[in-house]
Protein backbone atom coordinates (compact mmCIF):
# COMPACT_ATOMS: atom_id res chain seq x y z
CA UNK A 1 0.00 0.00 0.00
CA UNK A 2 1.35 3.42 -0.94
CA UNK A 3 1.97 6.23 1.51
CA UNK A 4 -0.48 8.41 -0.44
CA UNK A 5 -3.22 5.85 0.18
CA UNK A 6 -2.32 5.80 3.87
CA UNK A 7 -2.63 9.58 4.04
CA UNK A 8 -6.03 9.39 2.35
CA UNK A 9 -7.22 6.73 4.81
CA UNK A 10 -6.03 8.69 7.85
CA UNK A 11 -7.57 11.92 6.53
CA UNK A 12 -10.90 10.22 5.86
CA UNK A 13 -10.92 8.77 9.36
CA UNK A 14 -10.21 12.20 10.86
CA UNK A 15 -13.17 13.71 8.98
CA UNK A 16 -15.57 10.95 10.05
CA UNK A 17 -14.41 11.15 13.68
CA UNK A 18 -14.87 14.92 13.56
CA UNK A 19 -18.49 14.63 12.43
CA UNK A 20 -19.06 11.89 15.00
CA UNK A 21 -18.10 14.29 17.80
CA UNK A 22 -21.14 16.46 17.15
CA UNK A 23 -23.44 13.47 16.53
CA UNK A 24 -22.32 11.87 19.82
CA UNK A 25 -22.80 15.10 21.74
CA UNK A 26 -26.35 15.35 20.38
CA UNK A 27 -27.06 11.79 21.55
CA UNK A 28 -25.64 12.52 25.02
CA UNK A 29 -27.74 15.66 25.34
CA UNK A 30 -30.84 13.58 24.57
CA UNK A 31 -30.44 11.80 27.91
CA UNK A 32 -28.47 8.63 27.09
CA UNK A 33 -25.47 8.31 29.41
CA UNK A 34 -21.89 8.23 28.13
CA UNK A 35 -21.43 4.72 29.58
CA UNK A 36 -24.42 3.36 27.73
CA UNK A 37 -23.40 5.04 24.48
CA UNK A 38 -19.92 3.54 24.61
CA UNK A 39 -21.48 0.15 25.38
CA UNK A 40 -23.73 0.42 22.33
CA UNK A 41 -20.87 1.70 20.19
CA UNK A 42 -18.56 -1.16 21.17
CA UNK A 43 -21.18 -3.89 20.83
CA UNK A 44 -22.58 -2.57 17.54
CA UNK A 45 -19.13 -2.24 15.99
CA UNK A 46 -18.09 -5.69 17.25
CA UNK A 47 -21.21 -7.25 15.72
CA UNK A 48 -20.61 -5.59 12.34
CA UNK A 49 -16.94 -6.52 12.25
CA UNK A 50 -17.39 -10.11 13.44
CA UNK A 51 -20.07 -10.72 10.81
CA UNK A 52 -17.77 -9.29 8.14
CA UNK A 53 -14.91 -11.57 9.21
CA UNK A 54 -17.12 -14.66 9.46
CA UNK A 55 -18.40 -14.06 5.92
CA UNK A 56 -15.07 -13.24 4.28
CA UNK A 57 -12.25 -14.92 6.23
CA UNK A 58 -13.41 -16.88 9.32
CA UNK A 59 -10.03 -18.59 9.82
CA UNK A 60 -8.38 -15.22 10.47
CA UNK A 61 -10.09 -15.09 13.90
CA UNK A 62 -7.87 -17.89 15.17
CA UNK A 63 -5.39 -16.79 17.82
CA UNK A 64 -3.01 -18.43 20.26
CA UNK A 65 -3.78 -17.97 23.97
CA UNK A 66 -0.93 -15.47 24.29
CA UNK A 67 -2.08 -13.44 21.29
CA UNK A 68 -5.69 -13.58 22.48
CA UNK A 69 -4.63 -12.12 25.83
CA UNK A 70 -2.83 -9.27 24.07
CA UNK A 71 -5.83 -8.56 21.84
CA UNK A 72 -8.24 -8.52 24.78
CA UNK A 73 -6.11 -6.05 26.74
CA UNK A 74 -5.61 -3.90 23.64
CA UNK A 75 -9.35 -3.85 23.05
CA UNK A 76 -10.24 -2.86 26.59
CA UNK A 77 -7.62 -0.10 26.86
CA UNK A 78 -7.43 1.14 23.28
CA UNK A 79 -11.12 0.84 22.39
CA UNK A 80 -13.30 0.60 25.48
CA UNK A 81 -11.61 3.15 27.71
CA UNK A 82 -10.76 5.70 25.04
CA UNK A 83 -14.37 5.82 23.86
CA UNK A 84 -15.80 6.18 27.35
CA UNK A 85 -13.30 8.83 28.44
CA UNK A 86 -13.90 10.74 25.21
CA UNK A 87 -17.66 10.72 25.75
CA UNK A 88 -17.22 11.92 29.33
CA UNK A 89 -14.98 14.73 28.06
CA UNK A 90 -17.31 15.97 25.32
CA UNK A 91 -20.23 15.76 27.75
CA UNK A 92 -18.46 18.25 30.07
CA UNK A 93 -16.33 20.31 27.67
CA UNK A 94 -16.69 21.96 24.27
CA UNK A 95 -15.92 19.43 21.55
CA UNK A 96 -12.78 21.30 20.43
CA UNK A 97 -11.23 21.35 23.92
CA UNK A 98 -12.06 17.69 24.54
CA UNK A 99 -10.33 16.76 21.30
CA UNK A 100 -7.35 18.99 22.08
CA UNK A 101 -6.74 16.92 25.20
CA UNK A 102 -7.35 13.59 23.49
CA UNK A 103 -5.05 14.47 20.62
CA UNK A 104 -2.07 14.92 22.84
CA UNK A 105 -1.83 11.18 22.07
CA UNK A 106 0.59 11.63 19.12
CA UNK A 107 3.00 13.40 21.48
CA UNK A 108 2.85 10.42 23.84
CA UNK A 109 3.46 8.06 20.90
CA UNK A 110 6.57 9.97 19.80
CA UNK A 111 7.90 10.03 23.35
CA UNK A 112 7.34 6.26 23.62
CA UNK A 113 9.03 5.58 20.30
CA UNK A 114 12.03 7.74 21.18
CA UNK A 115 12.64 6.88 24.83
CA UNK A 116 11.17 3.38 25.23
CA UNK A 117 11.84 1.88 21.82
CA UNK A 118 14.98 4.04 21.60
CA UNK A 119 14.42 4.80 17.92
CA UNK A 120 15.55 8.05 16.34
CA UNK A 121 12.87 10.67 15.66
CA UNK A 122 13.63 13.42 13.19
CA UNK A 123 13.84 16.98 14.40
CA UNK A 124 11.28 17.93 11.78
CA UNK A 125 8.76 15.55 13.34
CA UNK A 126 9.30 17.14 16.78
CA UNK A 127 8.85 20.57 15.23
CA UNK A 128 5.67 19.50 13.48
CA UNK A 129 4.29 18.10 16.74
CA UNK A 130 5.05 21.30 18.65
CA UNK A 131 3.47 23.41 15.91
CA UNK A 132 0.37 21.22 15.78
CA UNK A 133 -0.10 21.20 19.55
CA UNK A 134 0.28 24.99 19.73
CA UNK A 135 -2.29 25.29 16.96
CA UNK A 136 -4.69 23.05 18.89
CA UNK A 137 -4.19 25.19 22.00
CA UNK A 138 -5.29 28.23 19.99
CA UNK A 139 -8.25 26.40 18.45
CA UNK A 140 -9.41 25.32 21.90
CA UNK A 141 -8.56 28.71 23.48
CA UNK A 142 -6.92 26.79 26.29
CA UNK A 143 -5.93 30.01 28.10
CA UNK A 144 -9.50 29.97 29.34
CA UNK A 145 -8.72 26.74 31.15
CA UNK A 146 -9.61 28.06 34.60
CA UNK A 147 -13.24 27.77 33.59
CA UNK A 148 -12.89 24.19 32.42
CA UNK A 149 -14.60 21.28 34.14
CA UNK A 150 -11.96 19.37 36.13
CA UNK A 151 -13.43 15.92 35.56
CA UNK A 152 -13.76 16.67 31.86
CA UNK A 153 -10.08 17.62 31.66
CA UNK A 154 -9.01 14.42 33.46
CA UNK A 155 -11.20 12.38 31.12
CA UNK A 156 -9.63 14.08 28.09
CA UNK A 157 -6.10 13.34 29.31
CA UNK A 158 -7.07 9.74 30.06
CA UNK A 159 -8.43 9.45 26.53
CA UNK A 160 -5.06 10.69 25.22
CA UNK A 161 -3.21 7.92 27.05
CA UNK A 162 -5.69 5.29 25.86
CA UNK A 163 -5.52 6.53 22.27
CA UNK A 164 -1.72 6.42 22.33
CA UNK A 165 -1.97 2.83 23.55
CA UNK A 166 -4.36 2.08 20.67
CA UNK A 167 -1.93 3.37 18.05
CA UNK A 168 1.00 1.45 19.50
CA UNK A 169 -0.79 -1.85 20.17
CA UNK A 170 -2.57 -1.78 16.81
CA UNK A 171 0.73 -1.20 15.02
CA UNK A 172 2.09 -4.28 16.79
CA UNK A 173 -1.06 -6.30 16.10
CA UNK A 174 -0.93 -5.53 12.38
CA UNK A 175 2.43 -7.29 12.26
CA UNK A 176 0.61 -10.56 12.97
CA UNK A 177 -2.87 -10.30 11.45
CA UNK A 178 -5.03 -8.43 8.95
CA UNK A 179 -6.84 -5.17 9.85
CA UNK A 180 -10.36 -6.67 9.74
CA UNK A 181 -9.73 -9.52 12.19
CA UNK A 182 -7.70 -7.20 14.44
CA UNK A 183 -10.58 -4.73 14.61
CA UNK A 184 -13.08 -7.55 15.22
CA UNK A 185 -11.03 -8.93 18.11
CA UNK A 186 -10.43 -5.60 19.83
CA UNK A 187 -14.01 -4.37 19.53
CA UNK A 188 -15.34 -7.72 20.73
CA UNK A 189 -13.10 -7.45 23.81
CA UNK A 190 -14.36 -3.93 24.49
CA UNK A 191 -17.97 -5.06 24.02
CA UNK A 192 -17.61 -7.92 26.50
CA UNK A 193 -15.87 -5.62 28.98
CA UNK A 194 -18.72 -3.11 28.98
CA UNK A 195 -21.39 -5.82 28.91
CA UNK A 196 -20.01 -7.27 32.13
CA UNK A 197 -19.92 -3.87 33.81
CA UNK A 198 -23.38 -2.94 32.53
CA UNK A 199 -25.55 -6.01 31.83
CA UNK A 200 -27.82 -5.64 28.85
CA UNK A 201 -30.95 -6.49 30.82
CA UNK A 202 -30.49 -3.20 32.66
CA UNK A 203 -30.23 -1.15 29.46
CA UNK A 204 -32.76 1.73 29.17
CA UNK A 205 -34.04 0.75 25.71
CA UNK A 206 -36.77 3.35 25.88
CA UNK A 207 -34.16 6.09 25.61
CA UNK A 208 -33.41 5.02 22.03
CA UNK A 209 -36.98 5.75 20.95
CA UNK A 210 -36.86 9.32 22.29
CA UNK A 211 -37.20 11.94 19.56
CA UNK A 212 -34.10 14.13 19.28
CA UNK A 213 -34.24 17.49 17.46
CA UNK A 214 -31.45 17.77 14.92
CA UNK A 215 -29.14 20.73 15.57
CA UNK A 216 -27.94 23.09 12.89
CA UNK A 217 -29.97 23.98 9.80
CA UNK A 218 -32.82 21.49 10.54
CA UNK A 219 -33.96 22.26 14.11
CA UNK A 220 -37.57 21.44 13.27
CA UNK A 221 -36.65 17.85 12.33
CA UNK A 222 -36.52 15.22 15.06
CA UNK A 223 -35.29 11.62 14.73
CA UNK A 224 -35.16 8.71 17.20
CA UNK A 225 -32.00 8.66 19.29
CA UNK A 226 -31.46 5.09 18.09
CA UNK A 227 -30.99 6.32 14.53
CA UNK A 228 -28.20 8.64 15.64
CA UNK A 229 -26.64 5.71 17.54
CA UNK A 230 -26.58 3.75 14.26
CA UNK A 231 -24.58 6.64 12.76
CA UNK A 232 -22.20 6.56 15.73
CA UNK A 233 -21.68 2.80 15.31
CA UNK A 234 -21.26 2.62 11.52
CA UNK A 235 -19.90 5.94 10.27
CA UNK A 236 -18.47 7.07 13.60
CA UNK A 237 -16.77 3.80 14.55
CA UNK A 238 -16.58 0.86 12.13
CA UNK A 239 -15.58 2.84 9.04
CA UNK A 240 -13.10 5.33 10.60
CA UNK A 241 -11.43 2.72 12.84
CA UNK A 242 -11.02 0.50 9.79
CA UNK A 243 -9.44 3.39 7.90
CA UNK A 244 -7.08 4.02 10.83
CA UNK A 245 -5.87 0.42 10.74
CA UNK A 246 -5.25 0.65 7.01
CA UNK A 247 -3.32 3.89 7.56
CA UNK A 248 -1.26 2.31 10.36
CA UNK A 249 -0.26 -0.50 8.04
CA UNK A 250 1.38 1.87 5.54
CA UNK A 251 2.32 4.90 7.66
CA UNK A 252 3.04 3.56 11.14
CA UNK A 253 1.76 4.87 14.47
CA UNK A 254 3.50 8.24 14.42
CA UNK A 255 2.52 9.57 11.04
CA UNK A 256 -1.01 8.24 11.47
CA UNK A 257 -1.25 10.00 14.83
CA UNK A 258 0.03 13.25 13.36
CA UNK A 259 -2.55 13.16 10.59
CA UNK A 260 -5.19 12.45 13.21
CA UNK A 261 -4.43 15.81 14.78
CA UNK A 262 -6.52 17.34 12.00
CA UNK A 263 -9.59 15.87 13.70
CA UNK A 264 -9.91 18.53 16.44
CA UNK A 265 -9.75 21.28 13.83
CA UNK A 266 -12.36 19.57 11.69
CA UNK A 267 -14.48 18.79 14.75
CA UNK A 268 -14.42 22.43 15.83
CA UNK A 269 -15.59 23.47 12.36
CA UNK A 270 -18.36 20.86 12.39
CA UNK A 271 -19.40 21.93 15.92
CA UNK A 272 -19.52 25.52 14.68
CA UNK A 273 -21.75 24.60 11.75
CA UNK A 274 -23.96 22.09 13.57
CA UNK A 275 -23.94 22.92 17.28
CA UNK A 276 -23.39 26.66 17.05
CA UNK A 277 -20.10 26.57 19.02
CA UNK A 278 -18.63 29.79 17.64
CA UNK A 279 -15.11 30.02 16.20
CA UNK A 280 -13.16 33.26 16.45
CA UNK A 281 -10.63 34.45 13.84
CA UNK A 282 -7.87 33.49 16.30
CA UNK A 283 -9.21 29.94 16.47
CA UNK A 284 -9.29 29.73 12.69
CA UNK A 285 -5.66 30.86 12.66
CA UNK A 286 -4.86 28.11 15.15
CA UNK A 287 -6.49 25.57 12.86
CA UNK A 288 -4.29 26.76 10.00
CA UNK A 289 -1.21 26.31 12.22
CA UNK A 290 -2.24 22.71 12.97
CA UNK A 291 -2.57 21.96 9.28
CA UNK A 292 0.82 23.58 8.57
CA UNK A 293 2.36 21.32 11.20
CA UNK A 294 0.81 18.24 9.59
CA UNK A 295 2.00 19.28 6.13
CA UNK A 296 5.48 19.93 7.56
CA UNK A 297 5.63 16.38 8.88
CA UNK A 298 4.19 14.78 5.75
CA UNK A 299 6.59 16.57 3.41
CA UNK A 300 9.60 15.34 5.35
CA UNK A 301 11.62 12.74 3.49
CA UNK A 302 10.14 9.37 4.48
CA UNK A 303 12.36 6.49 3.38
CA UNK A 304 10.22 3.82 5.06
CA UNK A 305 6.80 3.68 6.73
CA UNK A 306 8.02 2.58 10.17
CA UNK A 307 5.91 4.68 12.47
CA UNK A 308 6.74 8.10 13.80
CA UNK A 309 10.35 7.24 14.23
CA UNK A 310 12.32 7.72 11.04
CA UNK A 311 16.08 7.34 10.96
CA UNK A 312 17.80 10.54 9.99
**How do the strands line up in the largest sheet?**
1-2
Low-pLDDT windows of residues: 301-312
Give, in order, the helices and strands.
HHHHHHHHEEHHH
Using only CA atoms, what is the Rg?
Answer: 19 Å
Strand tally: 2
Assign an overall shape: globular
Overall structural class, as computed from helix and strand content, comes to mainly alpha
**Amount of beta strand:** under 5%
Number of discrete domains: 1
Number of helices: 11
Give the fraction of residues assigned to helices.
over 70%
- Largest sheet at a glance? 2 strands, antiparallel
Distance between the first and last residues' Cα: 23 Å
Task: Estimate the mean pLDDT confidence.
Answer: 85
How would you describe this structure to a colleague?
The protein has one domain (3-298). Helix content is 72%, strand content 2%. The chain has helices spanning 3-29, 34-56, 65-92, 95-102, 105-115, 123-140, 150-173, 179-197, 225-260, 262-274, 281-298; strands spanning 211-213, 222-224. Strand 1 (211-213) and strand 2 (222-224) form a beta hairpin. The chain is globular. The protein starts with a helix and ends in a 14-residue tail after the last helix. The model is unreliable at 301-312 (pLDDT under 50).
For the structure shown, list the relevant keywords.
312 residues, 2% strand, 2 strands, two-stranded antiparallel ribbon, mainly alpha
Topology of helices and strands:
Blueprint: H1 3-29, H2 34-56, H3 65-92, H4 95-102, H5 105-115, H6 123-140, H7 150-173, H8 179-197, E1 211-213, E2 222-224, H9 225-260, H10 262-274, H11 281-298
